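Per your request, structure below.
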């Protein structure tokens, strides 16, 4: 079985209840559930939550909620890998054999079923332990600045005169989804380590949604089509 997992705790601080707030006419989590359900590489979609309201909404949208997440995995310091490992263990304890797992965040409205399918193909082709959504930094990180005594200083002053096109591109975790091999999860291998392969997404479809300003900007991007996001 290829398992789709959507983690959605109820205790968001900066945007309270953000997993179920309406985003362009649908609760945010429903967009992730729909993308996972539409993905031909995912057989079963479950939601891991500690919140009964989120669980009820997830079920009404077509996902399963076969267990409620424990409090110790629902706080601010719980890691994604720990939540994945918990869901994997509980799913396998019910007799299922999981051959691959896709963890899709509840706040990833720009991710499509096509993204998930292509990324799973990359997992199979590469033989890697993980495939994660990534994006290129829009500005050379070698030109990054810090403040020293209120004045600007370069992190890498040796590149002050280097042409932008001569600098190595840099990428970051897009915070959208992760395809995982169960054996890597059980072993606790790092999700962004040497055995992880990036699935590159257009920067226009990568937006952290942690503050009200982030949310407003994401809705504007979504309204513009944002590189193929579903309506």
């Amino acid at each position: 079985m290829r398992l789709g997992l959507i983690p959605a705790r109820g205790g968001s601080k900066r945007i309270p209840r953000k997993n179920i707030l309406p985003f362009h006419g649908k609760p945010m989590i429903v967009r992730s559930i729909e993308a996972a359900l539409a993905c031909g590489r995912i057989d079963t979609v479950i939601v891991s939550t500690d919140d009964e309201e989120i669980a009820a909404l997830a079920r009404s949208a077509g996902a399963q909620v076969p267990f409620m997440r424990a409090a110790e995995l629902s706080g601010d310091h719980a890691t994604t890998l720990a939540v994945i490992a918990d869901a994997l263990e509980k799913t396998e304890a019910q007799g299922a054999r999981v051959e691959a797992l896709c963890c899709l965040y509840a706040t990833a409205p720009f991710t499509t079923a096509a993204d998930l399918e292509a990324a799973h193909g990359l997992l199979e082709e590469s033989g890697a332990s993980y495939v994660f959504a990534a994006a290129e930094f829009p500005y050379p990180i070698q030109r990054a600045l810090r403040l020293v005594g209120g004045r600007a200083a370069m992190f890498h002053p040796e590149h002050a005169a280097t042409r932008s096109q001569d600098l190595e591109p840099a990428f970051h975790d897009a915070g959208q989804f992760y395809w995982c091999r169960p054996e890597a999860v059980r072993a606790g291998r790092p999700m962004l380590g040497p055995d992880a392969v990036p699935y590159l997404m257009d920067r226009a479809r990568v937006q952290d949604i942690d503050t009200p300003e982030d949310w407003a900007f994401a809705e504007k991007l979504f309204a513009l089509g944002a590189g193929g996001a579903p309506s």
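Residues 80-93 form the longest helix (14 residues).

Regards,
D.
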